[in-house]
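Marked as duplicate of an earlier ticket. Keeping the data here for the record.
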Amino acid sequence: MKRLLTLIVFSFVLFVVASSAQAQMDMLKPAPELKKLDYFLGNWSLEGDMKPGAMGPGGKMTETEANKWMDGDFFLQCNVEFKSTNMGNGTGVAYMGYNSDEKVYTYDAFNSMGEAEHSKGTLDGDTWNWASEDKMGGMKMKTHFIIKTLSPTSYTFKFDMSQDGTTWNTVMEGKATKTK
């Protein structure tokens, strides 16, 4: 009887250890593509010109970003503060990641003006192309946000919008610089 009890306890312990080891092996690991987002790590300062148009009369905008990996290294968290002569001042948070099933980068942003943005992106050489489709004022709008890497510490950006996906209007252009 004592031997049977020992065998049952040993079998149970072996089962628990094996289950724990299997769970650790099955834990997700960040996709290798996420390492490319390391470029955006740290603090950035952005300056841009908003063009007159559907978004308003245009004007200057500035933004600061503090970007760091969330625990697990699946999402880069971007904490944003912005000032704009056109849209006012505010804050936001964004999350950059990678969707392995669709083979695209993801960008999900939310700001203090109640806006939510969900974009998908690709990287081609030194150029990031982010695209989304949103409703603005009840109308469907397609957007492109293009980032051109200039150096490890700077990039240019351009934000375009289109109602039909054919005719594009530049809404904003500018430059970002990594700060200490």
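See parent ticket for discussion. The helical segments are 2-26.
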